[in-house]
Design goal:
Blueprint: H1 3-9, H2 11-22, E1 29-32, H3 42-57, E2 61-66, H4 76-89, E3 97-99, H5 104-116, E4 120-123, H6 127-133, H7 151-163, E5 172-175, E6 190-194, E7 208-210, H8 212-222, E8 227-231, H9 238-247, E9 255-259, E10 263-264, H10 271-279, H11 294-300, H12 304-314, E11 322-323, H13 325-336, E12 341-343, E13 345-346, E14 349-354, E15 362-368, E16 378-384, E17 386-390, E18 394-395, E19 405-406, E20 411-413, E21 418-426, E22 432-440, E23 457-458, E24 460-462, E25 467-474, E26 489-497, E27 509-512, E28 516-520, E29 530-536
Parallel strand pairs: 1-2, 2-3, 8-9, 10-11, 12-27, 14-22, 18-19, 20-23, 25-29
Antiparallel strand pairs: 4-5, 5-6, 6-7, 13-26, 14-17, 15-16, 17-24, 20-21, 21-22, 25-26, 27-28, 28-29
Helix pairs in contact: 3-12, 8-9, 12-13
């Protein structure tokens, strides 16, 4: 993220930070605190860029910390994927990788401190009863019948909870705050529950686990985080956040600041919804290129620079809004156009025989690698009597605005010659299977020819030197009206492309002339069968 833009795009957050800096806060310390219960998506990328960007801008530090307080939904798979994603984006937490589970002993001691201060109690109400006792926005909560247990009894019961003497779900530890508070989060929230679940980090050491709302502010305080940047749904949790930090008597008191969560059109956001798609096999895993998970965008061919540029452009605010996905695509396209080598590939081949081209003759033609960048040089392509063109580049009877090959209209082959169709060959069902054409040897590109004009230039591939490939073309998960799109993937086999891409490596990006940008698919490609994902088309709808 460009640091000179941070001030304007995150102005309200900067106002808070600059005020704190004026009160002798030397350097800020932020953190990115994912829960390892799924893969990261574009919304997390926004938070990653902003938290690490703030630390860089103010010459401070940013931690990576896993909020792993719910072992029922967490795993090492997610931990590893998150670490890989953040590294791929280009951010470095140095030696500051932490886990909430690193602090379980400290959390327990803090809970004991609250009990001793008569600020917490063991409650025997069920989860459903606690919910009913909690009240609503229009009515106050009801006191738990166990709220007035003595400090000594609560200490004894909590110790027994830790020792595993009670069944799962039979007791909780709750903070004693205010059941009449207009903020429902302050109505004696649960801070510990009994759950015999093996934890990915602490294994079976614990059978009680802290709740997120209790653990999160303590983690920030323990790590001496100065500014806890989070999304707007935590705004109502801020009084509880501050209450825990104050009542547990931490000297360092982080400031929580909220900004609007990213909402992106035409796609599905949220780990829970993505997980449903993965489990129902409606997508091809968490790294499916149709998802806006960071791993899915990486597999599709998006670049870290494009994603960071997108996050910079949208900035942060407190107002919820939906960002059009065309802006993300614009950033991807803008980045790829300067990095990708342009090659000719035919997705739906139609064979062309040049009747007046000498049989057995081959010649080498020179084509630029990237029209936008001379420094990317040129390459040789082989031209021969038989070539393939795109099936959609020929019509027997074409409308006036059709600028490609017809029975009466010449066309230029990219970097080569003008050709004209003489005969259309069809099968018994009337399908076109081959074109017989003639070429004009005086019209070779770069020969100085300045005679007649043609309306269009099309790509081609020599039938004597090509490679077969497959392509995967993706559509949005959602229609414009928000309904699920049933047709999100088209697989095209037996495409033909220049031999130039035969040695493509994972991560290489190509512009298939007039088709868009493509990259190798890491899951389905092999040396015997190259499969390319379509990253993005060539035209941008973003304005």
């Amino acid at each position: 993220m460009a640091m000179d833009d941070l001030g304007s795009r995150g102005s309200f957050i900067h106002e808070f930070i600059n005020l704190d800096l004026g009160e002798n806060l030397n350097k800020i310390h932020t953190r990115f605190p994912p829960e390892p219960n799924g893969y990261l998506h574009i919304g997390h990328a926004k938070s990653i860029c902003f938290n690490f960007g703030l630390a860089e801008f103010y010459k401070g530090k940013c931690n990576l910390r896993f909020d792993d307080t719910n072992p029922a939904k967490e795993s090492d798979e997610y931990v590893k994927a998150i670490i890989e994603d953040i590294k791929w984006l280009g951010f470095d937490w140095e030696d500051r990788l932490f886990y909430a589970s690193d602090y379980f002993d400290i959390f327990y001691d803090c809970a004991v401190k609250l009990i001793k201060k008569n600020k917490a109690y063991v409650c025997d109400l069920s989860a459903e009863e606690i919910k009913n006792y909690r009240g609503s926005l229009n009515e106050p909560g009801k006191l738990s019948p166990y709220r007035n247990r003595s400090v000594e009894e609560n200490l004894d019961l909590f110790e027994k909870m830790k020792a595993g003497e009670f069944p799962d779900g039979s007791k909780t530890l709750r903070a004693k705050i205010d059941m009449n508070s207009p903020n429902i989060n302050m109505r004696d929230p649960v801070i510990y529950r009994i759950a015999r679940i093996t934890h990915h980090n602490t294994k079976d050491k614990w059978c009680i686990y802290p709740m997120y709302d209790f653990a999160h502010p303590l983690e920030d305080a323990i790590e001496k985080i100065t500014h806890s940047i989070c999304t707007m749904e935590f705004e109502d949790h801020r009084p509880l956040y501050n209450w825990f930090v104050n009542e547990c008597e931490f000297q360092e008191k982080p400031r929580q600041i909220e900004f609007a969560k990213l909402q992106l059109s035409r796609t599905i956001m949220g780990k829970r919804y993505m997980k449903e798609l993965v489990e129902k096999k409606e997508v091809d895993g968490w790294d499916d290129p149709r998802l806006v998970t960071i791993s899915g965008m990486r597999r599709r061919g998006y670049t870290p620079e494009a994603i960071k540029n997108f996050c910079e452009k949208i900035g942060v605010s407190k107002a919820n809004s939906i960002v059009d996905i065309s802006l993300l695509e614009h950033c991807v396209r803008d980045d790829l156009k300067l990095k990708s080598k342009m090659v000719m590939a035919i997705l739906k081949p139609l064979k062309v025989v040049l009747l007046n081209y000498p049989e057995g003759q081959k010649e080498k033609l020179i084509i630029e690698n990237n029209p936008e960048r001379e420094d990317m040089g040129t390459r040789e392509v082989v031209f021969s009597r038989e070539i393939f063109i795109e099936r959609d580049d020929f019509l027997e009877e074409a409308p006036k605005k059709f600028n490609r090959l017809t029975c009466s209209q010449e066309v230029r082959l990219k970097g080569a010659y003008f050709i004209k169709c003489e005969k259309v060959i069809k099968d018994d069902n009337g399908n076109i299977i081959e074109l017989h054409c003639v070429y004009d040897p005086e019209t070779r590109s770069g020969s100085g020819f300045s005679g007649r004009k043609v309306k269009g230039t099309i790509q081609w591939v020599s039938a004597n030197k090509f490679i077969n490939v497959s392509v995967r073309i993706y559509d949005y998960l959602l229609k414009e009206n928000g309904e699920k799109n049933p047709d999100t993937l088209e697989i095209i086999n037996n495409c033909v492309a220049e031999k130039e891409i035969e040695n493509a490596k994972l991560g290489d990006k190509f512009q298939f002339m007039r088709h868009g940008y493509f990259t190798l698919d890491k899951k389905y490609s092999s040396r015997e069968n190259l499969v390319f994902n379509k990253i993005i088309g060539l035209k941008s709808s973003y304005k």
